[in-house]
Amino acid sequence: MFIQTESTPNPATLKFLPGEPVLGRGAADFPTPEAAAASPLARRIFAVDGVAAVFLGADFISVTKSEGVEWQHIRPAILGAVMEHYHSGAPAIDGTAAEAHGHASGPDAEIVQQIKDLLDTRVRPAVAQDGGDITFHGFDRGVVYLHMKGACAGCPSSTLTLKMGIENLLRHYIPEVTEVRPVAA
């Protein structure tokens, strides 16, 4: 098995490409070791000293390191954990990955569906290339609330991505959108 690594716009996060499906569909975010209870793969990666967060995508794994830890010290151990997991035959997650977007109903349901459609077709595929994900969290009085995951969480360029990229896109296609804001996990 050959596992490739790619840098991401977030210097604290590396993207690992095992060359095989990770989740196949969907994504799963594990911001803490405790959150990884249902993921044999994430638990193995968290066992490496210096790992702060794990994000599983369709065909990639994003790993965020702790502050003060150097990639050259933990990258080989992470590669070993990923390889060990694939050789074990265990699933990446026990069960299924959670639904990407939050639910919304009421008078704004049509606008919310348009927002989710744009995120799914135009934003999320591009963000996945960088080892992250952005999901819908809510819509209130013109403000869209998005949850940034994986390499996007804590990325220095995430504010620019939200304001210049996603906000402009949503405002262009959906006049009811006035602003985009991130939400904490």
Structural class per helix/strand content? alpha+beta
Give me the CATH architecture of the largest domain, please.
Answer: 2-Layer Sandwich
| CATH class (first level) name of the largest domain | Alpha Beta
Range of strand content: 15-25%
Q: Report low-confidence residues grouped into runs of 5 or more.
A: none
- Give me the Rg, rounded: 17 Å
Helix count? 4
CATH superfamily annotation of the largest domain: Scaffold protein Nfu/NifU, N-terminal domain
Write the CATH fold name of the largest domain: Ribosomal Protein S8, Chain: A, domain 1
Helix content: 25-40%
Strand order of the largest sheet: 1-2-5-4-3
Please, could you describe this protein's structure?
- By secondary structure, this protein is α+β, with helices and mostly antiparallel strands.
- The chain folds into two domains: 4-88, Ribosomal Protein S8, Chain: A, domain 1 (2-Layer Sandwich); 109-183, 2-Layer Sandwich (GMP Synthetase, Chain A, domain 3), CATH 3.30.300.130.
- It has helices at 40-46, 71-88, 109-129, 158-173, and strands at residues 4-7, 13-17, 28-30, 51-56, 61-65, 132-140, 143-150, 179-183.
- The strands form two sheets. The chain has a five-stranded antiparallel beta sheet, covered by helices on one side. The chain has a three-stranded mixed beta sheet with strand order 6-7-8.
- α1 (40-46) packs antiparallel against α2 (71-88).
- The two termini are 33 Å apart.
